Amino acid sequence: MLVRDPHARAQVIANANQILTDIAAALSTDLPQSDEAFRFLSWDIGLTRAAAGVHPKESLLAASVFFRAAFSVLSKRLQGDSETDRLLRHVVNTLEQSVSIRIREAATSYAGFLLSKVHEAHVAERGRIARELHDRIGQSLSVAHRQAELSVMYRTTDPAKAIAKMERTQEAIREAMWRLRQLTSDLHPLEPIQSLEKALLAHLETIGAEDLRAELVVNGDEVWATPAISEECLLILSEGIRNALSHGKPSAISIRVDIAPHELRASVADDGRGFDVNRPSDRHSLGLASIQERAALLGGMVTISSEVGRGTRIDLAVPLPGSVDEPG
């Protein structure tokens, strides 16, 4: 396995040369020794093989093969009198020491790489939990807050509407509690959404902004997008809508989704306040950062364009499984 890869083969040859150099040096000084330069190569080998998913047993096998091959050649060259036997024992000891210290260094490097990957996984998991809290629970609480505000506003002028808004507040709070239970169990939806279009319509209905003109257009066959991709796209678009209502104060918002066999494209555009995309404090708000992170996890891309006083537009492009050409 190692010799088939050009880089790994070069590492094996360099390692063998260093070991044979150790043996030559030991024969001239009568002391086992290794140049400290071996550490750099050993660490490089450990990291490279860990990153490539090569199991440590491959390194042990390579060391065993090299030891047997080298010992076979050296023993034939050094057969003879008692002095030769002494030298042979010395060579064997040096060979074993030179090989084993390299294996230890490479193993340490390998373990360090794996620990680093575990740490990265923990950081990624914390980021995912933050996104789930913000996108799912935060979204429901934001809707509840908005409905409660509307209920207070209509309390004296339209009591019936105020009651309806309070009922929607309760629904949003129940949804937040349900999503919190989801998060504490497995952080994934219990059931995949059946229709992205219906889910977006339901989300727009829960917003309940009386003075907002909302338009939704969905083109293409939703079966081309897996339930997992549809779920993530729903969260991205919902967050885009939430950001528009929370920060842009628009009078109109337009959501468009175009689904093709190879790609899903979507956009959220509003006529609100807009913002300066060159200001990091604006562009990297928690909501927009979450949108970009979720798109990246899907292998997709988000483009955010905005201008103060002229609204904001979020464009999403996500590759679908059909975008990979199958042979034959």
Automatic annotation (TrEMBL):
Q: What is this protein called?
A: Signal transduction histidine kinase
Instruction: Tell me the PANTHER family matching this sequence.
Output: NITRATE/NITRITE SENSOR PROTEIN NARX-RELATED (PTHR24421), SENSOR HISTIDINE KINASE NARS (PTHR24421:SF37)
Q: Where is the Histidine kinase domain?
A: 236-322
Q: Which domain of life is it from?
A: Bacteria
The listed locations are: Cell membrane
Which GO MF terms are attached to this record? phosphorelay sensor kinase activity; protein dimerization activity
Q: Which organism is it from?
A: Nonomuraea soli
Query: What CDD domains has UniProt attached to this entry?
Result: HATPase_UhpB-NarQ-NarX-like (cd16917)
